[in-house]
């Protein structure tokens, strides 16, 4: 889980400031007073354990101990705030008769409300432990404070932070969700919780949370970029294209957005090509299985014809030659039997291939449809790079990608040429190579301009290859 990095601000800031500026003697007097109050209330409860007011006073003394900004005092009893919670419970129990709470019980429960004594004590200890990098203990205090202050965003937020720091991932998620549900708006938490959802592959939740962040911070480019990156990571290319088009409509001269839109179109093209190849591969498996079966049957026919001739020969040979002929017959019959088994296996492969490919006519129609979409996208893709270059003619990435777009189209044509047999090449090779040359010629000016902007060694090698293929006598500097 990706951690959210925040600076923890003590909730006892005002108290801490006063404490820092206070006279040292006064501070020592305050510490002494708190220690004496703890001791005094402990003794009072021992003497009269059934009096609710004494339990309440004891809880207040322990909260004061846990709330004191000086950690040398607060750390003398790490459980002080939790003991105080137990003492409050005891005061409420003793002052409740027949389900009706008395004034002391009500006063005790007020200490638990909102940011009253219990909250302040727990958060103070949580901050002290956080600053000491004891994140497990910090989580213990923070989470209890958040539990008591159900509508408090600060304790919910920092509960999530320290939970992550001590690798309590489920607790961190729960705390951040609470924070958002009660009105939290910190952008770091929005981003952090979205990353938690992303890691858990909860795509809709992650995107919905980023959308909520964009509603809160409509001018945040970081959040919009994060949504864009998420859509790419989730392979929601059409959504990413839609978002980027909206962004470009608001700022049509942002070269990076124009460039990214071109890349998305190329991504979409590649996705559609993969779909075409998947269908074509399935069809090819059927065709391959049929060729294997036809070839096998031809071979089997040879064996069958040979068997017929050998059996006929058996009738005409001398008795002493019959064992040799019979041996030949036995071998041929064994070969035919083996071929029949192999043929059954091939028939099974063909049946599986035909089942996988489905309706061949529908597949042809689907390939035609996808090819049409690819062609349309190819027509539009270069326009985004050109628009970026119209704004910044020296934009290297757009120059390189324009060259690569045409070069890659040429590479596809080159693969077709390389796959041709000699007869096909004699008939069609020249025309196809002319198409290849045309694509390379389109790529050259963009690559050459890109190389002037940045001397990239890989780009130099690409240009050298193009020059060689086109037999252009030109040096690449």
UniProtKB/TrEMBL annotation:
Taxonomic superkingdom: Bacteria
Keyword Ligase: no
Keyword flag Signal: yes
Sequence ranges of the TPR repeats: 187-220
SMART domains hit by this protein: TPR
Keywords: Coiled coil, Repeat, Signal, TPR repeat
Annotated signal peptide: 1-22
Coiled coil (residue ranges): 265-380
Name this polypeptide is given: Tetratricopeptide repeat protein
Protein source organism: Aquirufa echingensis
């Amino acid at each position: 889980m990706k951690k959210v990095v925040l600076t923890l601000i003590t909730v006892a800031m005002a108290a801490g400031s006063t404490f820092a500026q206070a006279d040292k003697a006064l501070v020592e007097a305050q510490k002494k007073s708190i220690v004496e109050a703890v001791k005094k209330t402990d003794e009072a409860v021992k003497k009269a354990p059934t009096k609710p007011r004494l339990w309440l006073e004891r809880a207040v003394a322990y909260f004061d101990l846990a709330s004191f900004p000086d950690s040398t005092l607060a750390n003398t009893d790490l459980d002080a705030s939790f003991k105080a919670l137990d003492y409050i419970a005891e005061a409420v129990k003793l002052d409740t008769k027949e389900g009706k709470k008395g004034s002391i019980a009500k006063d005790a429960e007020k200490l638990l409300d909102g940011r009253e004594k219990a909250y302040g004590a727990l958060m103070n200890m949580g901050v002290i432990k956080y600053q000491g990098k004891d994140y497990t203990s910090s989580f213990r205090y923070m989470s209890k404070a958040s539990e008591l202050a159900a509508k408090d965003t600060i304790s919910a937020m920092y509960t999530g932070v320290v939970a992550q720091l001590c690798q309590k991932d489920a607790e961190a998620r729960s705390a951040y969700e609470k924070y958002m549900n009660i009105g939290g708006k910190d952008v770091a938490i929005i981003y952090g919780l979205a990353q938690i959802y992303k890691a858990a592959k909860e795509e809709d939740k992650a995107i919905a949370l980023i959308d909520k962040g964009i509603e809160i911070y409509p001018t945040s480019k970081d959040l919009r970029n994060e949504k864009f990156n998420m859509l790419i990571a989730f392979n929601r290319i059409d959504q990413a294209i839609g978002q980027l088009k909206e962004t470009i409509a608001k700022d049509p001269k942002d070269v990076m957005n124009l460039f990214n839109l071109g890349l998305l179109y190329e991504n979409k093209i590649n996705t559609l090509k993969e779909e075409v190849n998947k269908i074509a591969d399935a069809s090819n498996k059927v065709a391959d299985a049929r060729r294997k079966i036809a070839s096998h049957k031809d071979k089997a026919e040879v064996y069958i014809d040979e068997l017929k001739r050998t059996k006929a020969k058996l009738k005409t040979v001398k008795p002493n030659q019959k064992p040799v002929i019979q041996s030949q017959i036995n071998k041929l019959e064994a070969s035919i039997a083996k071929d029949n088994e192999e043929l059954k296996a091939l028939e099974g492969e063909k049946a599986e291939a035909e089942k996988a490919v489905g309706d061949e006519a529908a597949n042809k129609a689907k390939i035609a449809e996808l090819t049409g979409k690819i062609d349309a996208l190819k027509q539009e893709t270069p326009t985004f790079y050109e628009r970026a270059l119209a704004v910044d003619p020296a934009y290297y990435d757009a120059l390189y990608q324009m060259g690569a777009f045409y070069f890659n189209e040429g590479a596809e044509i080159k693969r077709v040429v390389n796959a041709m047999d000699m007869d096909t090449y004699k008939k069609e090779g020249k025309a196809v190579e002319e198409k290849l040359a045309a694509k390379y010629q389109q790529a050259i000016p963009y690559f050459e301009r890109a190389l002037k902007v940045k001397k990239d060694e890989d780009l130099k090698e690409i240009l050298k290859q193009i020059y060689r293929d086109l037999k252009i006598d030109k040096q690449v500097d």
